[in-house]
Amino acid sequence: MCTCCSFKCCFVFFNLLFLASGVALIVIGVQEHSTYSLLGDFAMQSLSKVAIVLIAVGVAITLVSVLGNLGAFFNHKPMVSCFICILIIIIILEILTGAVFYVFGKRTVLKMKSAIDSKAQTVIHDYSPEKRHAIDKIQEKFKCCGADGPSDWSSSVGWENHDAVPDSCCVVKSPECGTDKEKARAKGCVKAIEIFIMKNLLWVAVVCIGLGVTEVLGIVAGLLFYRSIKQNCYENMS
Which tens digits make up the pLDDT trace of 166-209? Predict the structure, then answer.
């Protein structure tokens, strides 16, 4: 009985870590949703879906964790076995995803950088009325100016005053501050966005490694717990 309780405690512990990871992904996705939506308008349309993917993955992990916790609470073998099977499938998918990214990752990152640069240049050049809010918000949030720098505004068709930059470019924003280009930030938004994305990819990689370790330990604990439930059933029958 004590052995069963020990396995159960270990199973619940790793399951709670799994649950915490899922909730963390949901929170990050919700918090960054507005930022990625702006990036979709400014740099690359597919970036707007990143937050949605994070939320969806977080919800899936949370639901799987709830299934495991319910199986532990009720000592329910089918629930525990289902939880273990799902974790094994998730680990296989993670390994396949990691392998694909390892093979095609460099090419994908280069294509992404090229797409971001091209889209940002076009958006700045056009400076269309429907994109202006997103452009200003991006420049303020990422503390940048233009696609590659403030000089991009000198050739913008939508921005008529080529001797100035938008006020959102200013280090300290104030009305008409953009008329003095010396007050504008020197860093381009393409570079700032690339740094932001690479930092996010690094965090995602860290979370995935942590999840992978938790999942493996969760499977081990789940198998031991499942075995102890089975043994208790046989003992009760005898």
Answer: 999 999 989 889 999 888 999 999 999 888 888 877 777 777 77
Beta bridge partners of 184: 170
Task: Report the C-alpha gap between 170 and 56 in whole angstroms.
Answer: 37
Contact 8/228 with Cβ under 8 angstroms? yes
What are the tokens at 153?
Answer: 């505004």
Per residue in 71-97, pLDDT (tens digit) is 888 888 889 889 989 988 888 887 787
Token pair in block for residue 234: 């046989």
What DSSP string runs through 26-60? HHHHHHHHHHHHHHHHHT-GGGGGHHHHHHHHHHH
Residue partners of 182: CB distance under 8 A and separation at least 6: none
Q: Could you give the C-alpha distances from 177 to 29, 139, 172, in angstroms and in order?
A: 34, 14, 8
Structure tokens at 130: 């429907």
- Alpha-carbon distance 222 to 187, whole Å? 51
Cβ–Cβ < 8 Å for 191, 161: no
User: pTM of the entire structure?
Assistant: 0.75
Are the CB atoms for 61 and 15 separated by under 8 Å? no
Q: Are the C-beta atoms of residues 44 and 114 closer than 8 Å to each other?
A: no
Chain length of the chain: 238
Q: Kindly list the distances between the CA atom of residue 17 and the CA atoms of 8, 50, 66, 70, 211, in Å, as whole numbers in the listed order.
A: 14, 23, 12, 15, 9
